[in-house]
Specification:
This protein has two helices and three strands, in the order H-E-E-H-E. The protein is of the alpha+beta class. Strand 2, helix 2 and strand 3 form a beta-alpha-beta unit.
């Protein structure tokens, strides 16, 4: 999974106190990516905002334009990250395909 260099992502400064939670987020996303890839899509970590507990991801491939993108993102990815990692409150998609 590649990291985004997008300047619009909140809190891009390197904060090494967040390294552990970012590693946990990436680990969970890597596991979820295998399932998303089965349907021709992919998910990648783009950023983490510890002040809001928001994880930023990009959904690519078949995910773009898919009518189930909101279900995948919010009922799947967000719910699992919230369950697995204390402090995660939300997941937002950088590409803007998912609705809020």
């Amino acid at each position: 999974m590649s990291e985004n260099k997008n300047p619009n992502i909140i809190n891009q400064e390197i904060d090494h106190s967040q390294d552990e939670i970012i590693a946990q987020i990436k680990e969970v996303l890597a596991k979820l990516a295998t399932f998303i890839q089965r349907d021709g899509g992919d998910i990648s970590f783009q950023g983490w905002d510890p002040s809001t507990g928001t994880v930023y991801v990009a959904l690519t491939g078949a995910c773009q334009g898919c009518m189930y993108i909101d279900t995948t993102l919010y009922d799947g990815v967000e719910a699992i990250l919230q369950e697995e990692i204390p402090g995660v409150n939300a997941v937002r998609e950088i590409g803007g395909q998912a609705s809020l």
